[in-house]
Amino acid sequence: MNDERIHAFKMQLKPGFVAEYKKRHDELWPELRELLTMAGIIEYYIFLDEATLALFAFQKVAAPDTTAELAALPIMKRWWDYMADLMEVNPDNSPVVAACPEMFRL
Questions:
Q1: Coiled-coil ranges per the record (predicted)?
Q2: Residue 19: helix, strand or coil by DSSP?
């Protein structure tokens, strides 16, 4: 039995921040990378629709999946604060996220 799950979601980048968004992710803090891995994320991709600046994120997560607990952790909140000027965010600076349900798998 495969205990891996897929999480897919959309976020929205603000105009003029494509390069800075890429730069900050290229320089992802080692402690955040470790935290994401410890939460069960084994693959994480973010793609950009250049026409709309929509970001599409895809995570492959292994059990035990503790990604739901990340929002309460100080390092995650600090990352959200760091990224808040680049993208649409909620009042707590977490990114506005729209889940993307699976429609097909090959």
A1: none
A2: helix
25 noted as active-site residue: yes
Euclidean distance between CA atoms 95 and 59, whole angstroms: 16
Q: Is 43 helix (H, G, I), strand (E, B) or coil?
A: strand
73-99 pLDDT tens trace: 999 999 999 999 999 999 999 999 999
Catalytic hit among 5, 22, 23, 25: 25
- CA 87, distance to chain mean position in Å, is 12
Q: What is the CATH number of domain 5-99?
A: 3.30.70.100
Domain ranges, ordered by start, for the chain:
5-99
pTM, two decimal places: 0.91
Closest CA to 85 of 77, 96, 93, 74: 93
